[in-house]
Amino acid sequence: MQQGLDAFLVIGDVYRRDEVDRTHYPCFHQIEGVRLYSKDDLLGKKPDGSNAANLFTPTPDTQRIPEKQETHSIDAVKATEIQLKQFLESLCDELFGKDAEKRWVDAYFPFTHPSWELEVFYNGQWLEVLGCGIMEQKLLESAGVTDKIGWAFGIGLERIAMVLYGIPDIRLFWSKDSGFLSQFAGKLPGEDVKYKQISSHPQVIFDISFFLPESTQFNDMTSDVYDTIRTIGGELVEQVKLTDEFENKKKGKKSQTYRIVYRSHEKALTKEEVILR
């Protein structure tokens, strides 16, 4: 298998006209995957060394039918379909677990025929995971590929992330709200992470810097600083994070800067209200 020529992934931004709501946004991220097969790769050979079947029909003007394109042989299409579905079902097993129920639904896409959507039964409902199909042979021919057949699929990353992490609104992926971003900072793909609801009201941010007393050392894992700040700020303190450290070697002093994020679940706070506390 030639990586990069016969098998590759393309990841990028997708832009389209969409009304913005909880599940739609004019920009999202997509993974496109392609796998091509030569006749020997896909169909193999007979025991005597001859080809088992052909990728293409002898007459190029064969009529297109729901099961296949004009030039494809039915054997090649069925073999490619098996490879495609086995691969993508294995992908879904990795994402949703091997026990998740799956089903294939006939679909239409302009660059594949036949085409399908793969759905997974997850959290009590059928979820559309991806679209795929046998690549249009004319598309391959336009790229100079005349002796291979292949499949392609596309999967939206935000859609999958929303399901796996329990994120209720696609617009959060473009948020700079640290209440959202901090929940996923430093996490690995395999970790069990679930989104925790944040307030719809805006954050109020203050930075505080101070010199440490002699023989005292704080770090961002020290609970004393956090507990002290939360004792004074109360339940309005959403986050406390060490953001900077400085050492004045001449004076032998160290200073630290902490970012304190305030937010209310009941109303929009002002900086004046926070200062008065």
Automatic annotation (TrEMBL):
SUPFAM superfamilies: Anticodon-binding domain of PheRS, Class II aaRS and biotin synthetases
Family the UniProt entry places it in: Belongs to the class-II aminoacyl-tRNA synthetase family.
EC number: 6.1.1.20
Pfam families referenced in this protein's UniProt entry, alphabetically: FDX-ACB, tRNA-synt_2d
Subcellular location field: Mitochondrion matrix
Keyword terms: Aminoacyl-tRNA synthetase, ATP-binding, Ligase, Mitochondrion, Nucleotide-binding, Protein biosynthesis, Transit peptide
GO molecular function: ATP binding; phenylalanine-tRNA ligase activity; tRNA binding
Name of the molecule in the record: phenylalanine--tRNA ligase
One biological process term in Gene Ontology: phenylalanyl-tRNA aminoacylation
Catalysed transformations (reactions): tRNA(Phe) + L-phenylalanine + ATP = L-phenylalanyl-tRNA(Phe) + AMP + diphosphate + H(+)
FDX-ACB domain sequence ranges: 199-277
Xref: InterPro entries: aa-tRNA-synth_II (IPR006195), aa-tRNA-synth_II/BPL/LPL (IPR045864), Fdx_antiC-bd (IPR005121), Fdx_antiC-bd_sf (IPR036690), Phe-tRNA-synth_IIc_mito (IPR004530), Phenylalanyl-tRNA_Synthase (IPR002319)
Domain Aminoacyl-transfer RNA synthetases class-II family profile: residue ranges: 11-189
Keyword Iron-sulfur: no
The organism of origin for this protein: Caenorhabditis latens
UniProt keyword Protein biosynthesis, yes or no: yes
Cellular component terms per the entry's GO annotation: mitochondrial matrix
